[in-house]
Amino acid sequence: MTLMKYPGLAVLMLLSTIAGAADIKLDDVWARATPPGARTGAAYFTVHNTGAADRLVAAASIVAETVEVHTHEHKDGMMQMRHVPVLDIAQNSTVEFRPGGLHVMLIGLVAPLQAGDEFQLTLTFEQAGEITVPVRIVDARRESP
Amino acid sequence: MQRTMLILTCIAALAIGVFASVRMMAPPERPEIGGYILDAPRLLPEFSLTDANGNEITNESFKGDWSFLYFGYTYCPDVCPISLAELARVKREFETSLPDLSDHYYLVSVDPARDTPERLREYVSYFDPDFRGVSGKDEEIAKFALAAAVVYEVPESPEDENYIVGHSSSVTIIDPKGRVYAIFTQPHTAAQIIEDFPQILEYYESM
């Protein structure tokens, strides 16, 4: 494809560069399969921002009553989970959600997360808007995600 | 000639003697691990808890085996399942690499309000059918945790049932004499424990 054929697209691309819009992409999206009866779960992914600074302001999914961004802090010899209501995503940056660090916490699971299944997770960014991605459920006892 | 031989023999004997006594006097070197071995192993204080089958478990119950303990809670979505999955890997590895080892693996829940024995059983057996869950009264858990060098914080009056518990993320090793012997600190991966534990065992047996 050449841009000459799609002048509209070329103009849009140019405009988005000028306006400095956030350009957010997510990959490596997965969640840990949960033990029977579990009430909580965690999802992980990598945020690639190839545009201007943005902020992750909300997360939602039908698999849990509440979905929040959490991080871990080492404090007083403890691993302390902390709710992060607004997460800054710097311009041209990569933010990794991973076990033991930033994660999306699924609170009040409607049903256990079964390995091999998928569910939809919607993340809301202040600039980039809502992004919905499929989340692969992985049995982290056996395979590394 | 004979005299020279005698002197040489004496010198050799002396050298062997000195070498042997130096070796006997030198304490075995404490291995470096992904955490630490206690200067003086700490005997567990008296406590009474409940296992996931509803049976009493006390400090005495830990005697006779090597125990690998993780203190946490089942509503923990991240560090606890990671740690238990790592311990399950350790257990599977030791089944082949240390077949004579008598070892047990425990999740000690610091959140008894939500972690009933049934809940605990369901949770720990997901990681390994032989894993043991332990919990009980707050003050009894506190005694065990203190000895195991674990700190934790359960909110006193949580807003709802989805409260968060802060806790040390470490693996405490109890020796067959029922003493806290070593602590693996973060990230206490299976690979680390698998590599270090045989050295702990060797050190223990040399003492």
If you had to describe this structure to a student in words, what would you say it looks like?
The complex is a heterodimer of chains A (145) and B (207). Chain A is mainly β. Chain A has 1 helix and 10 strands; from the N terminus they run αββββββββββ. Chain A has one helix at residues 7-19, and strands spanning 24-32, 40-49, 54-60, 64-75, 78-83, 87-89, 93-96, 103-109, 118-125, 129-138. In chain A, strands 1, 2, 3, 4, 5, 6, 7, 8, 9 and 10 form a 10-stranded mixed beta sheet that branches. In chain A, β1 and β2 (40-49) form a beta hairpin. The longest helix of chain A is centred in the N-terminal third of the chain and has 13 residues, at 7-19. Residues 15-19 of chain A have low confidence and may be disordered. Chain B is α+β, with helices and mostly antiparallel strands and 207 residues long. Chain B has helices at 2-25, 79-97, 117-127, 138-147, 190-206; strands spanning 35-43, 48-51, 56-58, 66-72, 103-109, 132-135, 152-153, 166-167, 171-174, 179-184. In chain B, α2 (79-97) crosses α5 (190-206). Chain A binds chain B through residues 32, 34-42, 66, 70, 72, 74-81, 99-100, 103, 105-108, 140-141, and chain B through 74-79, 81-82, 85, 88, 119, 122-123, 126-127, 151-153, 162, 164, 166-169, 186-187.
